[in-house]
Amino acid sequence: MKGNKRLFATAVAILIIAVAAWFLLTRGKSPDMADMDGQGHSDYMLMLNTGTKYKVGQPNTLEFMIHDKNGKVVRDFETMHTRIMHFIIVRKDLANFQHLHPSFDKESGVFTLTGLQFETDGEYRLFADFTPSGGMAQGHEHHQEMSKGQTLGVSVVAGDANKYRPESIGYSRMSDSRENYSFALQSKGSELERVLRFTVSESGKPVKDLQPYLGALGHVVVLSEGDLMYVHAHPDESVGNETGSVSFEVHFPRPAKYKIFAQFQHKGKILTSSFVLETK
Question: How far, in Å, CA of 109 to CA of 212, rounded?
Fold first, then answer.
């Protein structure tokens, strides 16, 4: 009998250690930001379906759950910007950006992305951006309305990691273009506290009739080069789009080079632009 008790105690200890190790590998580190070693922690965990091999150039299915610090599956979430989950996928070198919204089965607590495409071989960083209902508030002075927001990050490999060829994000780049649209970025303020003003033009003329995208005139995701610190910003809704411009207040975590992904909607089409900005 004593031997059985010892075996049971050993099994429980191994299980606790395994869960703790998994938690350290997959936890998010602070609200609105991920991968900030030594700068906060999250009481939530992102759990992917294990053992999945993600293919390149073919549809993939990705499933995941959110667990709280007690290991309980989280099933209740606040709707933020018309969705309960914003899921960001980007290659480790900040290429191949995707902003997706998985389906959710509340009974099981499982989020599912179907038809997920990875364009090239390599390591990708996945960010789950959400707000649990009744979660512990972790205030952020720049986003009071999102004070309970969480961002959890985890990495996966698609295809053959040996074929991965990282690309440099280059130097400061304040303009971009897609089809007949052009985008310009102006940055004002101190090095870390910035107002980013985006101007969207179609065929050379400022777009003054942007449509709400996920309940706002635009969304911005900022990621640092290398360690992929994450910031999700939303526009100043007190200013209209009559000038063809949309402004965002952004707090940059530290001096670094950042890639900025800005998304807008016009004529029913989602427009994704990217820029490079360095703070010192």
Answer: 29
The answer on 127 and 45 residing in a single domain is yes
Interior CA angle at 183 toward 173 and 277, to 5°? 25
Strand partners, 175: 184
Please tell me the distance from the alpha carbon of residue 209 to that of residue 241, in angstroms, as a whole number: 7
pLDDT tens digits, residue range 241-270? Answer: 878 899 999 999 999 999 999 999 999 999
Alpha-carbon span 189 to 148, nearest angstrom: 27
How far apart are alpha carbons 25 and 21 in whole angstroms? 6
- The first and second tokens of residue 170, run together, are 């280059």
Are 139 and 262 members of one domain?
Answer: no
The enclosing domain of 115 has a CATH number of: 2.60.40.1930
SS3 call for 193: strand
Token representation of residue 258: 């950042």
Q: What is the pLDDT of residues 233-243, one digit of tens each?
A: 989 877 778 78
Residue 246 placed within a domain: yes
Using one digit for the tens of pLDDT, what is the confidence trace for 82-124? 999 999 999 999 999 999 999 999 999 999 999 999 999 999 9
CB-CB neighbours of 23 under 10 Å: 17
Domain extent at residue 220:
175-278
The pair of structure tokens assigned to 160 is: 């053959």
Give the pLDDT confidence of 19-73 residue by residue, as tens digits. Answer: 434 433 443 333 333 333 333 468 899 999 877 899 999 999 999 999 999 999 9
DSSP of 108-161: TTEEEEEEE-B-SSEEEEEEEEE-BTTPPP---TT-GGGTT-EEEEEEEEES-G
Dihedral sign of CA atoms 184, 188, 193, 195 in order = negative
Tokens 């690309």, residue located: 167
Looking at the domain assignment, is residue 101 inside a domain?
A: yes
